[in-house]
Every structure is written in structure tokens, then in C-alpha cells.
Write the C-alpha cells for this entry.
Amino acid sequence: MKIRICLGTCCHLMGGSDLYSYFEEHCEKNGRDFELETPSCLDYCNRADYEAPIVEVDGEIYDRVTVEKFKKILEQG
Amino acid sequence: MSNFFVEVDHSQIAKHSKQVPGDVFLSKKLDRSDRIVSVLSDGLGSGIKANVLATLTTTISLNLTANSVDIKNTAETIMKTLPECKVRKISYSTFTIIDIDLQKDRVEIMEFDNPGFMLFRDEKRISLDKKKIRMDNPIGASQTLYYVEFNIELGDRLVVFTDGISQAGVGREDFSLGWSEEAIVSTVGRKIAESVNISARDLASFLVKEAYKIDGKKAKDDITTACFYFRRPRRTLLLTGPPVDRDNDYKIKQRVDRFSGKKIICGGTTSNIYSRLADEDIKVNLNSFHKDIPPDSEIQGIDLVTEGILTMSRAIEFLESGEPAVVDPDHPGYKLYDYLKNSDYIKFVVGTKINEVHQNPHIPEDLGLRKNVVKKLAGLLQDKYLKKVDIEYI
């Protein structure tokens, strides 16, 4: 699973850093095959139909991602 | 802009058992000109009284020299007004005035009763012909001052000190006449040869500590040294924010290519633009991840790549506090602070496109305008840290 957590200004402020911390604490050690990237800006926050924080999972964009939502996305994947 | 940057700093240890030193060093960079005026004065006696006398002498000399065209006029005025000790018939304080004009790459020095300054070119001391000037003090007694002017060369170091240095060790058998001029020259020369890039601050501190050791770690007089290091300015380019017009994106790469010095990009979109134009990958440095701030990244050819507004705001906090309380060298805000603090000239290139997302009501209002953050950062660097700063908006 390829995960990209945006850590641009807006995403960071709106909870992107919590998503990264959650990933670091819970996902990296559970043996699943994750590939993580933390781009400095995915450039989605500028679009009217998206709201930070943004996460991309296997090419699909998710917005307004909370830790709960992130957990679910990872479980479904 | 001059080819030189002058690093000015001093170091001091007060006479043993005195809380306040009687030596005073003041330096002032004059606005809108490339002049730096500095004065070192040793007040008669020690402690508070000496400090007041030396403070008066340095302050008056500094302001007069800054406002006068001629260093000799300043010296004359000071000589006419300096009070005299009725018992010892000597002036209440000494002075060395150093007037540096970087537009002409020229230095003028006027000395009265302090040990003679030393000029080092690499580790060699350069001897200069000083002109003897006679001036009368208020009671008509003739006094001797020394005047010299010379052109600066890259790498020159000026070392100015009070008699706490030259008379260190007086009374010791092996230092009966104090620390001789030859011995001071060879100590300083050796130190410069050992550490060719030694800062003005470290050289001044080294010399003061050596004298202190000679005094048996109980300073017999106030020990003060001021150093001036004429070196190439350390230049830094800081790019932040995308241009208003996308057609101007090329300017980001162009400014980087044309600049010689350290290069910093603050901003995710800005680094994306540069990465695309330069065809270089961005590698996020997760070791620098901190809860309060996004991590920094690496791009070939750029010395530091960080997020924009939050990181600059943290650097502002660090600069405002003087020295950050907890120094974490991996913190991106600290890295930025460190780069800026160690630069002499900073060129900001600021893209003025407003990031509409930053106008989001959930985001602190003061983060909304990049221009304001840059203005604050530039103002701080200029006013508090005496850096030369330019801002270009694109």
C-alpha cells in the first residue's frame, strides 16, 4: 500500500502531523507492507473541492482526514 | 556594496573583586552608510567610577565621530573636555577611536594613551607609520595622540586592547614588565595560523583569557580586547512563495542559478516549482519531523529546504529570544535560524501569490500573509542582528 501524507503548511496545521505520528506509532511495526511518503505539498489544498489534511492512498485522494478516518482507510486497504 | 564585511566583537574580564569593569567598548554601524565607528576607553582607576568615565568617553567619541567628518576634530573635543586627575595630573580616561569606511575600504584610527593597536594580515603583523599629534588638555598640558589611516585588505584583522593585556603578569618574575608587545604579536599570530577562520569574537576571547592566565586567574586590571575581522560577506538567498503570475515561475530557478552563496527555499509550493524546473527530486528529511513544524527536505543544489510560514515564524521566535532555550539542531526552524544568524547579507525573493487556503478561518490570522512574516523576519535581521537585507517581490 502506497501512502502519501501531505505535510504542507495547511495540512500540517489541520492535523497532517497527527496522521504521520499515528502512522509512525501504529503502522510501521505491524508487519504490513506500507510504503510511506510525506511530500512537502500535494497541491490539493488550493482546490476549492478539497480540504486539508490530504492523504493519498494508492493513487486515491482523501481529504479532511482525521486519525479515525485514516485508521479506517488503512484497515480497508 | 563593499567587498568586505566587518565582524566586530570584544571580550572582557573585570579586575579581580570588581563587579563592573572600568574599560568600555562601544561600536555603532551608521544607518544608510557603510561606516562603522568603534571606541575603546579605559577609565582611570577601576570599578563604577572608572566605568562611568569610560562610558562617557566612548559615548561622546562615538556620537561625535558619527556626526563629524574628521576623527581629529573628535579627538580634539574630547581632549579639551576630558577632566584631569588633580593628584596624578593625568587624564581620567584613555581612548582608541576606530572609524571604518567601507565605501572607501579605509580605516582611520586615533589613539590616546591605550596600548597601540595591532594589524594582522594573515598571521603576520603589519607595521604602520603613525602620525604623532600634540594636543593640549584643559589645563594646557601637552598630550600625545597617534593617528593613522590605511586601506583594508581582505582577511585583515585589527586587534585593539587596554593595558590589562599589555601589563598582564606585572609583578611576576618572568613578566616583570608585563606581557611584551613581541610576545602578544607572536601569540596572536600563532592563533591565527592555527585557526585561519577564527572569528573576531573567538580571537578577542582567546587573547583576554591568555592575559587572565598570565595574571594567575586573578585579573590585576580590567582586561579588554576588541577585534575587527575584514572578510568576505557570507551571503544567503531565501526564496519563499510562488510568484503571482505562473509565467514568472522561471524566476525562482533563475534567482537560484544567478546567486553565489547559501541557498534556502521556504515553502512547499516554492520547492515544488524549483524541483520541477531544475528537474531535481525532493527528498523529505523525516529525521527533522517535529510536532510543531513540518519536516525539512533535500534538493540537490539547495542548502536548506523547509516549509514556509510556520518555519519562518519559528525562526523569528528564535531570533527574538536571542538564543533558543532548547537547541535541537534537527529542528527546521532552528536550522533556518542558524543559517540566517550566520549570514551577513540575506536576499529575500518573495512570491506574492496569496495562498487562499491560508485564509481559512481555522488558520491563525497572522500566518495569512507571507509578506508580513518576511517583513518581520527581515526587520529583525536588520535591526537586531545588523545584517544587510534586500527584499525582492516576484
User: Anything to note?
Assistant: Residues 58 and 76 of chain A are 12 Å apart (CA to CA). Chain A has a mean pLDDT of 86. The longest strand of chain A covers residues 2-5.
